[in-house]
Amino acid sequence: MATTILRHPAVAGRFYPRDPEDLRAEVRGYLSQSVTQAPVRALGCIAPHAGYVYSGHVAGAVFARVEIPRRCIVMCPNHTGMGRALATMSEGVWETPLGEVPIDAELAAALKERLPALEDDPAAHRAEHAAEVELPFLQERQPELRFVPIALGTGRFEILEQLGTALADVIAAQKDSILIVASSDMNHYESDAATRVKDHRAIERILTLDPRGLFDVVTQQDISMCGYGPAVAMLTAARQLGAKSAELVKYATSGDVSGDRDMVVGYAGVVVV
């Protein structure tokens, strides 16, 4: 009998509470802060992945704003440097304190067939936090969640564009609604004032659904947005799938919580419909 690949949480107890009841209460609190409109059916979104104390309120605003379908693709940057440049997992389950989330094997297989450069590599995901921290929000909103994780260790535009095109082709062929989550923080470790200026240059490109423009502004203007790769791929896919608009749901910096305005990280929550 085959054993199921089980990915244990890498950052429970650090980025978010390890205790299930504490975690559920915290997630529900962040989700409930922003509920002013009915959730929309979105093609994609951008959500931050820092410790919940800093960015949970922005992530909560995003995930409260969108309908969470049963199937999601969660793309994140590869912070650890482990594993392949385009790394997925096409079988097994991810464990969080809220329970287990199965990988959508059918969707992962279709993506790998469409884009052979996308390879199975659990090593790229084992210690990576940026997809993991989104899962408790998705689990709370959608108890029947299945997902495909993709960690990006490449910053080449052509590859990001190819990934986005492949995502769109595969999603268009599915009967179900599928949400693409791009996990990203914004500019890192500059003053609050400088970070807000840089971040809003990048956000401007995102809101015009301009993946190439986002890539150019981030890479040419020294904006340390860690997940620009996932954002470029998500925007490419969403445009091909007929996206009409993007909405900045919430923006903040870590300075809003810590009070330290000298060195901050920016967080943007964006929904693409």
Spell out the blueprint of helices and strands.
Blueprint: E1 6-7, H1 20-32, E2 44-47, H2 52-65, E3 71-77, E4 86-88, E5 93-96, E6 99-102, H3 105-114, E7 119-120, H4 122-126, H5 135-141, E8 146-152, H6 157-172, E9 178-183, E10 188-190, H7 192-207, H8 211-220, H9 228-240, E11 246-253, H10 255-258, E12 264-272
Parallel strand pairs: 1-5, 2-9, 3-8, 3-9, 4-7
Antiparallel strand pairs: 2-12, 4-8, 5-6, 10-12, 11-12
Helix pairs in contact: 1-2, 3-6, 6-9, 7-8, 8-9
Notes on the structure:
With 273 residues, the chain is of the alpha/beta class. The chain has one domain: 3-Layer(aba) Sandwich (Protocatechuate 4,5-dioxygenase, Chain B), CATH 3.40.830.10. The protein contains ten helices and twelve strands. The strands form two sheets. Strands 2, 3, 4, 7, 8, 9, 10, 11 and 12 form a nine-stranded mixed β-sheet that branches. Helix 1 crosses helix 2. The longest helix is centred in the middle third of the chain and has 16 residues, at 157-172. The mean pLDDT is 97.
* CATH superfamily (homologous) name: LigB-like
| Residue share in helix | 25-40%
Which descriptor suits the 3D outline?
A: globular
Calculate the terminal CA-CA distance, rounded to whole Å.
43 Å
Please name the CATH architecture: 3-Layer(aba) Sandwich
Number of domains: 1
CATH level-3 fold name: Protocatechuate 4,5-dioxygenase, Chain B
Q: Please tally the helical runs, counting DSSP H or I stretches of 4 or more residues.
A: 10
What do the pLDDT scores average to? 97
Care to count the β-strands? 12
Helix-strand topology string: EHEHEEEEHEHHEHEEHHHEHE
